[in-house]
Design brief:
342 residues, mainly alpha, 0% strand, Phage_tape_measure_N
Length: 342
């Protein structure tokens, strides 16, 4: 009896344990199902959150497309950096792509456009300033054309230097053009005109002085002319313009004139003849020899030259003969070339 009771107690206990196990299993299943339900709910919440996040990102991109594009470029840069760190692209390609991303970022941020606008504005301002400067310079050129011409000469000289430095012209051409520019500059500044006027004034002063000397000392002036004419004869002979015979003949005439002048000078010192009378009597004699030399140097026939100068000598004799007797002292010899001696 006791044994049966014990078995019954064990059976009862086993049944209770089984029921408890079944209840526990059922509870665990329910808990698992509840966890899965909760997980599904959480997934739905997460998905809903991602959808909302994406929708928000799209909204921001619509509101600020430039900012969204810049963010995208930033992410692309991060991805590119990862690929470079992993060795998937080399340094050259990486730097090229980074440069492209930077250019894209500058374009999106407006920096490049702003730079272009600033450069355009700067060029426009420079062009306007240059136009104003040119207009002002044209006005100055009208006011002072001489300064404008000199400035143009300076520009031409600079261009000439550049052409010579680049080998476009040789040294001879450079010197020739430089000399022309210098001559033009001297003409513009009046320097050349001043030199010509100074030379002309000097020549006039020399002529006036020679005329005065001739009036004060006609015999001495005649001697000087004879010396000069002898030099001209020597030069003509040296150049082959005179034959030895013609040279000796003309030189003999000069020597004869010199002798006559010496006699006249001696008698003037004795008689005290006025300088004016002496100059009138002898002023044509040296000029005749000059005409002879010039005629021969130009290629005239010696016969024609002597015939012409012989006629002049005859005319001179007539002028001298017409002087008052008191103008020529008795016994005075007038040095002249007669028609027969010519």
């Amino acid at each position: 009896m006791a044994e049966q009771t014990s078995r019954l107690a064990i059976i009862i206990d086993s049944t209770g344990a089984k029921n408890n196990a079944d209840n526990l299993t059922s509870s665990l299943v329910k808990m698992t199902q509840a966890g899965e339900t909760a997980a599904n709910s959480a997934g739905k919440v997460t998905k809903a959150t991602e959808d909302e996040k994406n929708a928000l990102a799209k909204l921001k991109a619509a509101i600020d497309p430039v900012g969204a594009a810049i963010d995208t470029v930033g992410r692309r840069y991060s991805e590119l950096k990862k690929f470079f760190d992993k060795g998937l692209i080399d340094k050259e390609e990486y730097e090229f792509l980074v440069r492209k991303l930077n250019e894209t970022t500058e374009e999106l941020s407006g920096v490049a456009q702003a730079q272009r606008e600033a450069e355009k504005a700067g060029k426009l301002a420079a062009a306007q300033q240059e136009a104003q400067a040119q207009a002002f310079q044209r006005m100055l050129d009208k006011i002072d054309p001489l300064a404008a011409a000199l400035r143009n000469l300076e520009q031409q000289h600079d261009e000439l230097n550049a052409a010579f430095a680049s080998g476009k012209i040789n040294g001879s051409q450079f010197e020739n053009y430089s000399r022309k520019i210098q001559e033009t500059r001297r003409e513009l500044t009046g320097e050349a005109q001043a030199e010509r006027e100074a030379a002309k004034a000097h020549d006039e002063q020399v002529v006036a002085l020679q005329r005065l000397i001739a009036q004060l000392d006609p015999v001495g002036t005649a001697f000087n002319r004879l010396v000069e004419q002898q030099k001209q004869l020597n030069e003509a002979k040296a150049k082959g313009m005179l034959s030895p015979e013609m040279y000796e003949e003309l030189s003999g005439k000069l020597r004869a004139m010199r002798s006559e002048l010496e006699v006249t000078q001696s008698q003037l010192s004795k008689t005290g003849m006025s300088a004016k009378q002496t100059a009138f009597a002898m002023r044509m004699l040296p000029a005749q020899m000059t005409d002879i030399v010039v005629g021969l140097s130009t290629g005239q026939s010696p016969f024609m030259v002597l015939m012409q100068q012989g006629g002049h000598s005859a005319m001179q004799e007539t002028r001298i003969a017409s002087l008052p007797v008191t103008a020529i002292p008795a016994g005075m010899k007038i040095p002249c070339v007669t028609a027969g001696s010519a």
